[in-house]
Each structure stands twice: as C-alpha cells, then as structure tokens.
Design a protein that fits this description.
Strand order of the largest sheet: 11-15-12-14-13-16
Structural class: alpha+beta
CATH class of the largest domain: Mainly Beta
Number of helices: 4
Helix content: 10-25%
Radius of gyration: 33 Å
Order of helices and strands: EEEEEEEEEEHHHEEEEEHE
Number of strands: 16
CATH architecture of the largest domain: Beta Barrel
Amino acid sequence: MGVAQQDEIVDVIKKVNDEWTAIRTKDGIEGFVASRFLQSGARKAEPQKPVEAAKTVTAYGTRINIRKGPSTGQEVVAMAQPDEVLTYIRKVDNEWSEVSNADGKRGFVASRFLSFDGKPSVASVEAAAQEAEAKKAADEAAASEKALAEAKRNEEDKKAESLVSEKITARNDAETTVPDETGYFKADYLKLVNPNLAYEKTFASGIFKTDRGWNDGKYYLLMDNAAPGTLVKLTNPGNNKVVYAKVLGKMKGLQYSEGYDIRISEAAAQKLQLGNSEKFNVLVTY
C-alpha cells in the first residue's frame, strides 16, 4: 500500500500481536508494518565520529614529476603544477614522499619540492637564493648594455668592438674543451625530463652577460614560466642548434624585461649561432 522512509513519524493505531502493528502515515494511509521496524518515542541521535581531514602538501615549482617509485630512475606517471595541493600519504625516507593528486593518481615526489604545513619548501629556499643571484646578474647585464650604448656614440666604439671580437674568438677556442657542445646540463636534463610529457613553447628572447658557459658549458636563462633550477632545452628554430640550460631566476620585476619573454646567457646565444640581434626567437622545451 505504501513505503515508509527511515525516521518517518507514523501514528500507531493498535498493536496486532508481537510481530505486527497497525499504523497510519502522515498521508493518511493505514496498513500493517512488522513491529521490529518501529521505534516508539523520540529517536536518540547517535554521536558521529569526527572525520579526520586528510593531510595535504603544496607543490613548489612548475611541472614537478610524480614518479611510479621513489627514485629518479622510475617512470613519470603524472606532473604537479605550481601551487597544486596534493594529498600527503606517507614519508618514504629523507628524500621522497608518497602523494596523490586530485585525479587520484598516486606516486612519489622528491620531498624538497613539497611545502609542509605552510612552511617553505627546500626548493623554494634554494630558488630564493638563486633569484637573488639572478637579479644581480640581470642588473649587471643592464649596466653593461647601457655602457655599450654610450660607447657607440664616440670613436672608441670601434676599439670596443675589436676587443669584444677578440674575446669571442678566444672563448670559442676555449669551448672545445667542453665534452659535449650542447652543454654541461644535458645529462641531468635527459635523466629527469620525460620527453613524452615535455612542454614546448617559442619565446621572444634577448641575452644577459655572465662569465659562465664559455669554458664550462654551463648555460643559463631567465624566465617566469619555470621555477629557478629547472633544466630546459633551448633550440634555435632557424638552424636547429641545441643547448641545455638551467633557469637562474625570473624575468618579472627585472630591468629591461619589457618586450622580452626570456633572456639567455651570452654564451648560450653564441652556441646557438643567433647572430648579433638584440631580440630573437628561441624554442624552449621543459
């Protein structure tokens, strides 16, 4: 005749026997219900056990690898984006933690890229130091550019260009001592970056001056799209020349950043054979 829902209040007409009771619902339906499904008087609410909230951590950096096992040799199963909140499962050891993302993908992340309880991650502390170094390098690059512009206004410009040419020739000769012409960071890039998950984008670039790269093959760049310390591959779209570099710091807030997406070190630009243009395109893979 009808269905009574859990906790629905009904009127008892009479108790038929030990097993059955005649009732009337709030809609006026009269019928019989097994007595064992009825409770007289007000029902006492059972106290609910508090649900412990899952512990979360925040990823620091761009496209942090989530691996199948706690080792850089393990397969990359997913990537965490900047400031992505992950569910913390357990600490594996002093270097690795097990986490899961919003899609339920479970894996392992280097603990240095995780922020626990709002405290800065180890990687963020290192990045802050690198960013300070990058700012100093960018300021020196800006001062160097200003000095070069002033030099072009007088007769000493030709002498300065001659000296620069001699230095570039000497540096090119010194580069032959670098084991791999694509740079010092190639091996680490190939070990850490999964080619199937890598991201590519063409940026408008300029240069900044530093003494690195000419003899040691250590190429650097400034960019906002990746955290300091990220390893990238730089490609000249015009001739497919390639070097591997490390992000030294961000462009945002630096002098002479307007109109440029990134800046690469002078040695990297020379190795990519980008010529003497102040602005050029570079394909970045990371």
